[in-house]
Design brief:
The chain is of the alpha+beta class. Helices cover 40% and strands 23% of the residues. It is built from 7 helices and 8 strands. α2 runs parallel beside α3. The termini are far apart.
């Protein structure tokens, strides 16, 4: 048994040493930088608000719950300064008495409801086709103050393009929100 274990160990190490490293395609070099935040009290909400305040043309959002007042205010301010803001939310937001869907709808921000999935559990923002905000961090007060969450702010146009394509796929099968159902 010891001989077999030794052989497998040597064989595995040999394969590891001679195998080429796995890397992402470098066909088109890209500039990528990122920031990471952990909660509770790790500054994730402030990081999101800073990025939203820098937005110049578009903000695409996919969210499950959305109850963070500072983030909602930053999105509303971006909308008021002419940034095109579009939101896709989980179907749970469709029937709540006063939901984030209602808030955005009343503010004139286009809202779609993704009811195709059991839960539309994405937590994504794509800003100006260049910055992706994602992670386990829900856009809620509890995510900042109580929960163990993570948030990545990634500045990479190629990654933003992939997330934008995914956002568009979800937008195609989502329903336009026209106000709260009674």
């Amino acid at each position: 048994m010891k001989l077999i274990t030794a052989f497998l160990t040597i064989f595995t190490m040999t394969l590891w040493l001679v195998s080429p490293a796995v890397t992402l395609s470098q066909e088109k070099p890209t500039t990528c930088n990122w920031e990471v935040y952990f909660s509770p009290h790790g500054g994730a909400t402030d990081a999101i608000v800073r990025e939203l305040n820098k937005a110049k043309s578009t903000i695409l959002i996919q969210a499950y719950p959305f109850t963070s007042a500072p983030i909602a205010k930053a999105l509303l301010n971006a909308h008021k300064r002419g940034v095109k803001v579009e939101v896709i939310l989980d179907k749970s937001q469709k029937t709540q008495k006063y939901s984030s869907a209602t808030f955005f709808f009343n503010a004139g921000i286009p809202v779609k409801i993704d009811a195709q999935h059991a839960i539309a559990h994405n937590k994504v923002m794509i800003i100006d086709g260049e910055t992706v905000i994602t992670g386990s961090f829900n856009f809620t007060k509890a995510a900042e103050e109580s929960n163990a969450e993570n948030l990545l702010v990634i500045r990479d146009k190629r990654l933003a393009l992939l997330y934008t394509k995914n956002w568009q796929e979800h937008a195609q099968h989502s329903e336009v929100y026209g106000g709260r159902e009674k």
